[in-house]
Amino acid sequence: MDRDARDVLVVVGVGGMGRAIARRQGTGKRVLLADFDETTLQAAADALEGDGHAVTAQHVDVSSLESVSALAAAAAALGSVTQVVSTAGLSPVQAPAAAILKVDLLGVALVLDEFGRVIAPGGAGVVVASMAGHMMPPLAPEQEAALAAAPVGELLRLPFASPDTVTDSGQAYGLAKRANHLRVQAASLAWGERGARINSISPGIISTPMGQAELGSASGQFMRVMISASGTGRLGTPDDIAAATAFLLGPESSFITGTDLLVDGGVVAALRSGRLNLGAPS
Question: Is 39 exposed, middle or buried (CB count within 10 Å of its CB: 0-12, 13-18, 19+)?
Answer without folding.
Answer: exposed
